[in-house]
Amino acid sequence: MTPALRNQVLQEWRQFPSRESFSPGKATTAMNALVPSVMKGFGLEKRLQESQVFHLWQQIVGADVASHAHPVSLRNGILVVAVDHPIWLQELQRFHKALLLQKVQECVGKKAIRDIFFRIG
């Protein structure tokens, strides 16, 4: 098999241009536009939306709270947040839970996160 024939077969099989035909000057799709469409194609759009809470946590709750509490898991609409000290746990659970839940829901969506559970860890 000649190299040219091999490249042609691989290109047809992969349905993508070969490395030789790719040039950086050609228009490409930005990754931030590509990832959501790929996730949607796999039926993972909701999971992508939910994962935003982990990436945007500090922006959602502020630097002070984020330095003492961080999200560790999200299952069935319940966000589990680990807190570094019992006093912070009590403060967040008693006085700030409703506000934090509202801020998270505004950012991610009410359907994605129904409740927040705080724990030491």
Short key terms for the protein model shown above:
alpha+beta; GMP Synthetase, Chain A, domain 3; 121 residues; 3-stranded mixed beta sheet
Describe what this molecule looks like in 3D.
The mean pLDDT is 84. Strands 1-2-3 form a three-stranded mixed β-sheet. The longest helix has 23 residues, at 86-108. The chain has six helices and three strands. The chain has a single domain (3-120), classed as GMP Synthetase, Chain A, domain 3, CATH 3.30.300. By secondary structure, it is an alpha+beta fold.
Could you give a short description of this structure?
The protein has 121 residues and is α+β, with helices and mostly antiparallel strands.
Compressed to H and E, one letter per element, the order equals HHHHHEEHE
Number of helices: 6
What is the assigned CATH homologous superfamily? DnaA, N-terminal domain
Return Rg in Å: 22 Å
In the CATH hierarchy, the architecture is 2-Layer Sandwich
What characterizes the major β-sheet?
A: 3 strands, mixed
The figure for the number of domains is 1
Structural class: alpha+beta
* Average pLDDT metric: 84
Helix coverage percent:
40-55%
What is the rounded distance between the termini? 60 Å
Q: What top-tier CATH class fits best?
A: Alpha Beta
Q: What is the CATH topology assignment?
A: GMP Synthetase, Chain A, domain 3
Number of strands: 3
Q: Which ranges are low-confidence, i.e. pLDDT below 50, for 5 or more consecutive residues?
A: none
Tell me, what's the shape? Answer: elongated
* Proportion in β-strands: 15-25%
The order of strands across the largest sheet is: 1-2-3
